[in-house]
């Protein structure tokens, strides 16, 4: 596949980004979105061995909470079937947090340290060992590296001339990012209402063909840029597999 795409970041942080992609079709845009949710493998706690649990919460409830703690998953470090062991030992009065999980592998750790697991009272203790395994979002939601993934058509604003003297006063709402006067604008800059930017103009809004604005949030298991890159690779790998199968 020889297609080339134009990518422009509008906002970029470790766990959240907003970016524009030009030159992709709607089906490819949706394929990338679905891949970020379902195809990119992440580590997550899958089984828990309780050494001691004198808290008020059942083992099964605590195991569920532990399974939902995002773990860092460096690219290329793990394959399906690999297991990483973690341990936690907290005695009350105290609160057990995700940051109390100790990993046997230095590259694997909780993506956030301040996720509460349980509050322990006096003389209560929680001691566990847990195994984290590689999985994909299509198998279980706890393996979804993308916790919020969406996109929309880039919209372009065209000015049509001066507003009529008795024109409508209806709000002209747009969301996210638009293209106007040759530049990208965040619509919150004018309260999402085009009347605030063009108070004396008639305007028309059009979808820009094959241009989409993505808004992606990662659970912290990997940076957003890596999540997107691995999702795109997954889409192309599956496309090549299908192409090879059709040729047989």
Short description:
With 248 residues, this protein is an alpha+beta fold. The chain has helices spanning 26-38, 59-67, 194-197, 224-247, and strands at residues 6-12, 16-22, 42-53, 83-91, 94-97, 102-103, 116-120, 125-135, 146-162, 177-180, 183-186, 201-218.
Q: Mean of residue pLDDT?
A: 90
The N- and C-terminal alpha carbons lie at a distance of 19 Å
In the CATH scheme, what's the topology name of the largest domain?
Answer: Gyrase A, domain 2
CATH class of the largest domain: Alpha Beta
Structure description:
The longest helix has 24 residues, at 224-247. The chain has two domains: 6-39 and 146-237, RNA polymerase, RBP11-like subunit (Gyrase A, domain 2); 43-139, Beta Complex (RNA Polymerase Alpha Subunit, Chain A, domain 2). The chain has helices spanning 26-38, 59-67, 194-197, 224-247; strands at residues 6-12, 16-22, 42-53, 83-91, 94-97, 102-103, 116-120, 125-135, 146-162, 177-180, 183-186, 201-218. 20% of the residues lie in helices and 40% in strands. It is elongated, with a radius of gyration of 24 Å. A six-stranded mixed β-sheet has the order 1-2-12-9-10-11. A hairpin with a 3-residue loop joins strand 1 (6-12) and strand 2 (16-22). It is of the alpha+beta class and 248 residues long. Helix 1 crosses helix 4.
């Amino acid at each position: 596949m020889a297609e080339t795409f134009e990518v422009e970041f509008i906002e970029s942080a470790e766990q959240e980004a907003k970016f524009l992609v030009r030159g992709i079709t709607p089906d490819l845009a949706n394929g990338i979105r679905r891949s970020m949710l379902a195809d990119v493998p992440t580590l997550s706690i899958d089984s828990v061995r309780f050494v001691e649990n004198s808290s008020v919460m059942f083992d099964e409830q605590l195991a569920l909470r532990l399974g939902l703690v995002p773990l860092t998953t460096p690219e290329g470090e793990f394959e399906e079937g690999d297991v990483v062991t973690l341990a936690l030992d907290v005695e009350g009065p105290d609160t057990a947090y995700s940051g109390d999980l100790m990993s046997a592998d230095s590259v694997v750790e909780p993506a956030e340290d301040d996720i509460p697991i349980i509050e322990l009272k006096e003389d209560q203790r929680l001691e566990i060992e847990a195994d984290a395994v590689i999985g994909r979002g299509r198998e279980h939601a706890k393996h979804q590296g993308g916790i919020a993934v969406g996109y929309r058509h880039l919209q372009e604003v065209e000015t049509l001339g001066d507003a009529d003297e008795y024109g409508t006063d209806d709000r002209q709402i747009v969301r996210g990012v638009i293209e106007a006067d040759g530049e990208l604008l965040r619509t919150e800059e004018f309260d999402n209402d085009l009347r605030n930017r063009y108070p004396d103009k008639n305007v028309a809004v059009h979808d820009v063909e094959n241009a989409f604005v993505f808004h992606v949030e990662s659970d912290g298991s990997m940076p957003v840029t890596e999540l997107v890159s691995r999702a795109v690779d997954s889409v192309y790998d599956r496309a090549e597999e299908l192409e090879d199968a059709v040729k047989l």
